[in-house]
Amino acid sequence: MEKEKKMLLIINPKSGKERIKNRLLAILDIFIKEGYQIQVYITQKALDAKEMARAQGGDMDLIVCSGGDGTLNETISGMMELEHRPPLGYIPAGSTNDFASSLKLPRRMADAAMAAASGEPCPIDVGRFQENQYFVYVAGFGAFTEVSYLTSQDKKNLLGHQAYVLEGVKSLTTIREYSMKIESDDQSYEGNFIFGMVTNTISVGGFKGLVSQNVSLSDGLFEVLLIRVPKTPLELSGIVSSLLLKEEHEMVHKFKTRALRVETTEPVDWVLDGEFGGSHTVVYLENLYRQIEIRKNPSRKLLPEQ
Q1: Parallel, antiparallel, or unpaired: how do β-strands 188-199 and 178-184 relate?
Q2: Cβ pair 57, 84 in contact under 8 A
Q3: Per-residue model confidence as pLDDT tens for the chain (306 residues)
Q4: N or C: which end of the chain has fewer CB atoms below 10 A?
């Protein structure tokens, strides 16, 4: 008889209009039929997913998490503290699911569950922020970055992607600039900036190709976008056009790098995968090459009623 495999299933029940509640029994049925003995944990508060992955994940054959990008971040952050890291399955259930889109994971929860249980392992890079924080797909500062963590879960559930747009419009009137020195592997920038993000994803905030058209999630490199302070309405218009049309502009810097150091004259708030990452005057970001294997491409598609 084949040995039963052990799975840790971490669920954030609040994510994305609480979608998983009506599908949980069907998902558990899929996992059991694939031969898994399941330990289920329902998160109760922030950092629960991280703690559970760290405490229990090392004894598992597979870890699966269901929630939004924040739940995925917590789960991977916990896994990064393990000596033995099992494969990871992800059932997206958030408002935007940026990283799931980049991975081309199935949209339907049952198919995502099948991919988690039996899909092909896909290695991904993980970003380290400072010494002991991690991000999966984006670390950012400045205009609009606070939108994701200041928007309440209830509002995200009610309005979905529109919630981010509404909060983003509000923040237009309070854009701040930061005096910075930014150093990558082979270049440096100084001056005043209103926005920056370090990414390992194809989609950010539902927008694809914002930083680069040529993105790999497992090449050991980040894609970086920096925007300087526009001094005139014309410069601001040019910046917006360059981002929308994916053209070059002297106020917009795009490049790839393995690591980045950012030094500022005052503390700057950072956001990691949509959650608050702290205020810092000096930060160091490093790409950790192919640290986690996420399963994708289910071995078979399920019938609609499943």
Answers
A1: antiparallel
A2: no
A3: 467 899 999 999 987 667 788 889 999 999 999 999 999 999 999 999 999 999 999 999 999 999 988 899 999 999 999 999 999 999 998 767 778 888 889 988 999 999 999 999 999 999 999 999 999 999 999 876 654 444 455 544 444 444 444 454 444 446 789 999 999 999 999 999 998 999 998 877 655 656 666 789 999 999 999 999 988 888 888 887 887 777 888 999 999 999 999 999 999 999 998 888 999 999 999 999 999 999 998 877 765 654
A4: N
Cβ pair 65, 15 in contact under 8 A: no
Supply 72's token pair. 């995925």
Burial class (CB in 10 A: 0-12, 13-18, 19+), 233: exposed
The gap between the terminal CA atoms of the chain, to the nearest Å, is 27
The 10 Å Cβ neighbour count of residue 244 is 10
What kind and span of H or E run contains 89? strand 88-92
The 8-class DSSP code of residue 45 comes to: S
305 backbone φψ class: left, alpha, beta (φ>0; ψ -120 to 50): alpha
CA distances from 120 to 200, 257, 297, 300 (A): 20, 28, 6, 12
Would you name the residues annotated as active-site residues? 275
pTM above 0.90, yes or no: no
Residue 171 DSSP class:
H
Backbone angles phi, psi at 268, to 5 degrees: -120, 135
Q: What's the CA gap between 71 and 188, in Å, rounded?
A: 33
> What is 226-285 written as a DSSP string?
EEEPPSSHHHHHHHHHHHHHT--BTTEEEEEESEEEEEEEEEEEEEETTEEEEEEEEEEE
| Nearest by Cα to 62 from 99, 42, 91 | 91
Which tokens hold the place of 102?
Answer: 């980049």
